[in-house]
TrEMBL record:
InterPro entries: 3H_dom_sf, 3H_domain, HTH_11, NadR, WH-like_DNA-bd_sf, WH_DNA-bd_sf. Ni(2+) binds at residues 77, 85, 144, 146. Pfam families: 3H (PF02829), HTH_11 (PF08279). Gene3D superfamilies: 3H domain (3.30.1340.20), Winged helix-like DNA-binding domain superfamily/Winged helix DNA-binding domain (1.10.10.10). It comes from the Bacteria. One of its GO terms (molecular function) is metal ion binding. Residues 73-169 form the 3H domain. This is Transcription repressor NadR. Keywords: Metal-binding, Nickel. Residues 6-58 form the Helix-turn-helix type domain.
Length: 172
């Protein structure tokens, strides 16, 4: 299979999946190394394909795949409170799309999350712990934004109430 055919097959796999697909899984399915997949993703992105790399794998950005309301939520908490913060969101049926911080040198930095369940959160926390990676919010004293997606305004009203009660919500 040539590179063009492989990239088309890669797009078909991602488009046909409701969940993110790992680079290793794509490599296995297409008979190449994970590094080839990383290169193919870079080429496809350069061609304008909206492919996201999340902690759970690659996915295609498509507004019609996950309809609903999207809002930004500003929060601050310690590293040890990360699981509690994320649980507060997913327990309300919300998707935590990403995390955003404002870095003094690089400007806005965004990390894709795509967390919708407690299992997603647990897997994310486990990866953070196993890799000893820093959270983006560690660059800003715990202050960060999340893009959060939900079905209706009542979910966001409840989220605001919950985050305020826990002392995580930034309002001023």
């Amino acid at each position: 299979m040539d590179a063009s055919s492989r990239r088309n097959a890669l797009l078909e796999i991602l488009a046909g999946s409701k969940e993110p697909v790992t680079g290793s899984s794509l490599a296995s399915r297409l008979g190449v190394t994970r590094q080839v997949i990383v290169q193919d993703i870079a080429v496809l992105r350069a061609q304008g394909k909206e492919i996201l790399a999340t902690p759970r794998g690659y996915t295609i950005l498509s507004s019609d795949r996950t309809p609903g309301i999207t809002k930004l939520v500003a929060v601050r908490h310690s590293r040890s409170e990360t699981r509690e913060e994320l649980y507060s969101m997913v327990d309300l049926g919300l998707e935590v799309v990403d995390v955003i911080v404002d870095h003094p040198v690089y400007g806005q930095l965004t990390g894709q999350l795509s967390l919708s369940t407690r299992k997603d959160v647990d897997d994310f926390i486990k990866t953070i712990e196993e890799t000893r990676a820093g959270l983006l919010s560690s660059l800003t004293g715990g202050v960060h934004l999340h893009t959060v997606k939900g079905r209706d305004k009542s979910q966001f009203d409840k989220l605001e109430e919950t985050l305020r009660e826990k002392g995580f919500l930034l309002t001023e």
